[in-house]
Structure formats: C-alpha cells, structure tokens
Amino acid sequence: MPRDLAGRPWDDLDFLGWRDPQSPARAYLVTELAGRPAAVALRCPDAAARHLRRNMCSICLTAPQAGVSLMVAPKAGRAGQQGNSVGTYLCSDLACSLYVRGKKDPGPGARLQESLTLQEKTARTLAAVAAFVAKVTG
Ligand SMILES: [Zn+2]
After folding, report:
1. C-alpha of residue 22 to centroid of ligand 1, in Å
2. Which residues contact 84 (CB under 8 A, 6 or more apart)?
3. What CA–CA distances, in Å, run from 107 to 24, 90, 95, 124, 138?
4. Strand partners, 4
5. Residue 77 neighbours by CB distance under 10 Å
6. Rounded distance, CA 30 to CA 48, Å?
7. Which residue from 73, 44, 68 is spatially nearest to 135, judged by alpha carbons?
C-alpha cells in the first residue's frame, strides 16, 4: 500500500491508484464494485516507453503530458492461470480522478472540451473503472 494514504485527496478520488515505488512496471487500482472493494494488480509492459506516447486514457479520456501506459491485469481465476489478461490504457500517474476534476493540470490540449457536468464526468470515470475491473474479475 502507498505510504501517503492519509494525505490522499479522498473526496476527489473515483478510485485509488498507485505505482509500486520499488517496481515502476507495477501498479495497483482499488475501487468499489457492487458495494464491495475490488483491487486489481496491473503490469505496465511498456513502462520504459510511457513518456514517448501521448495516447488517450480509456478511463478519464485525458491525454496527459505525463503519458498514458498500457496496463495489463491477469484475469481472475482459471482464465488468469491460463494466461488470459485484460489491458487498458491508463494515465501513467493514475491521476484520472484529479484530471477529470481539474485538480491536476494534464498539460495543454490534454482534455477535450465537453459540455458534461462534473458529476456526469465522474460518473463516466467510475463506470469505466468498474467496467475494467469487472472484465478482470468476471
Ligand atoms: Zn486517466
């Protein structure tokens, strides 16, 4: 677990995500799924190349200057044992919630102009995280 848990801006987080400080190719994501906490361990196979890319995060639809990484999670249960995994493009710093709320600057041109309310945007972010976690655990 990250050491700065108490200092995290909980009110502004749709999910908790962090990279393993000892191993930058690993990241973790914790969210709530059907009222229960669900945690997913992710690998970032392209960790070395993440700053070269400027793709769009599939969770928050931001293309941050800090980069987007393809993060892969082994599927739960037998499918995972057989080597099946699920991948998604995620902000390399996992700061999706803060980008959506405008609490962290993702850099110029990183976010689309949208007419959605913040509530609609955070609902979409939560739904995207839940859909990803459901794919991993389902
Ligand atoms: Zn993101």
Report:
1. 22
2. 74, 75
3. 22, 16, 13, 21, 35
4. none
5. 11
6. 24
7. 73
φ, ψ at 73 (rounded to 5°): -120, 135
DSSP secondary structure string, 65-113? Answer: TT-EEEEEEEPSHHHHHTT-EEEEEEETT--HHHHHHTSS---TT-B--
* Interval between CA 118 and ligand 1 midpoint (Å): 15
User: Ligand 1 centre from 138 Cα, in Å?
Assistant: 22
Higher-pLDDT residue of 32, 133: 133
- pTM above the 0.90 mark? no
Mean pLDDT over each residue of the chain, to the nearest integer: 89
Instruction: Residue 128: name the closest of 84, 85, 105, 97 by CA.
Output: 97
Q: Give the tens place of pLDDT for each residue, 49-100.
A: 555 556 899 999 999 998 888 899 999 999 999 999 999 999 999 999 999 9
Distance, CA 111 to ligand 1 centroid (Å)? Answer: 10
Residue with tokens 């709530």: 32
How do residues 106-137 score in pLDDT, each as one tens digit? 999 999 889 999 999 999 999 999 999 999 98
Q: Residue 67 and residue 101: Cα distance in Å, rounded?
A: 18
